Amino acid sequence: SDTSVPPARVRPLTCAETRRGDRRVVRSLGDSTVHVSATAPRGRGRRHPLSPSRACPQVSAARHDATFGFSAVFDAGTSQEAVFEGSGMRELVELAIGGFACTVFAFGQTGSGKTYTLMGPLAQSEAQPAAPCVLGLMQRSFACLLEQSRGAGLALSASYVEIYNEQVRDLLSPGPPCALPLRWSKSRGFYVENQLSVEFESLEGITELLLEGSRRRRSSAHALNKHSSRSHALLTVHVRSRARGAGGQGTLCFVDLAGSERVKDTGSAGELCVEANNINRSLLALGHCISLLAKPRGKRAHVPYRDSKLTRLLARALGGSGVTLMVACVSPSSRCLSETLSTLRYASRARSVTTRP
């Protein structure tokens, strides 16, 4: 993969944040850079699950005034189509058709717009389909994939799983979700055993699979997000040639990470608190793996992919032979300053991770 910095997206202030009087502390400078400037609140110095071990050198000693550079910056007024075209997503689809293992994931604090960036509004249904202008990276990629594969003799199928409380569950299999075993082999790496893979030939077909799985995915409401994802979800499109004797296949995997969160800020208790702890634990394992992968090859220690189910399933995307696109999603609110800085530092750290596709 190339060594360009991941793109970043800054969502608008919500109505609740505006009513509360939150200030906008994140601004795009118009040259693919983001500037964060505000007075950091006291007594909130806990390390973010995605925070690297070293601070970004561009951040001042006060830790509340920083400038970050990215391959692209999408501010509050950026359309979903512009995010698709400007993030490199179209090129990723072409690579998947060419046989590469491609992955895209959005990361950031809970409520920062990750699911919206990937899928668009959550209130999508057959009765009230979302307007085309708000469709996310996934639906636009499906359309691009089907258009470019037409007449090329390709077979397309999809699988959809979630990691909930460190259990891998199939979102497409009929019946109540049940835990599936995670295996490892030399040829496939880590993989989910017995997961259902469904073939599709149209945009309607893959969209229905996406909606069906998303309806079964665990989500809850808390103080920071009315539709908080309580699991990490991975939808993988498998691209293979129908020609006899054709070897290998390309994949396009979309990863919707559950957001990092502070239990004190979300007001979580009981089951929500258990979910939050598991989410943060897996995100911490992911951040640790990326910090180690960012080191020069000669100085890398063992990368502990086995520390969580999430890092096992992302092992090939992070350090294998795949091509990966990461989108950093942040809130502009002064209340989310600490989490926003941690996400942006993490993205800057991830820029030095390179693979050999």
In short:
Keywords: ATP-binding, Cytoplasm, Cytoskeleton, Microtubule, Motor protein, Nucleotide-binding. By secondary structure, this protein is of the alpha+beta class. The chain is 30% helix and 24% strand.
Write the layout of secondary structure elements.
Elements: E1 8-10, H1 15-20, E2 26-28, E3 33-37, E4 65-69, E5 73-74, H2 80-86, H3 89-97, E6 101-107, H4 114-119, H5 137-149, E7 154-164, E8 167-170, E9 179-180, E10 182-185, E11 189-192, E12 198-200, H6 203-216, E13 219-222, E14 225-229, E15 232-241, E16 250-256, H7 263-266, H8 271-293, H9 309-313, H10 315-319, E17 323-330, H11 337-350
Parallel strand pairs: 1-5, 1-17, 6-16, 6-17
Antiparallel strand pairs: 2-3, 3-4, 7-8, 7-12, 7-15, 8-9, 10-11, 13-14, 15-16
Integer tally of domains:
1
Overall geometric form: globular
Estimated helix fraction: 25-40%
- Largest sheet: number of strands, sense, barrel closure: 10 strands, mixed
CATH fold-type name? Kinesin
What is the CATH homologous superfamily assignment? Kinesin motor domain
Number of helices: 11
Order of helix and strand elements from N to C terminus: EHEEEEHHEHHEEEEEEHEEEEHHHHEH
Distance N to C terminus: 6 Å
Tell me, rounded to a whole number, the average pLDDT.
82
Strand portion: 15-25%
Alpha-beta classification: alpha+beta
Rg over C-alpha atoms, rounded to the nearest angstrom: 20 Å
Low confidence ranges: 52-62
What is the strand tally? 17
CATH architecture: 3-Layer(aba) Sandwich
CATH class: Alpha Beta
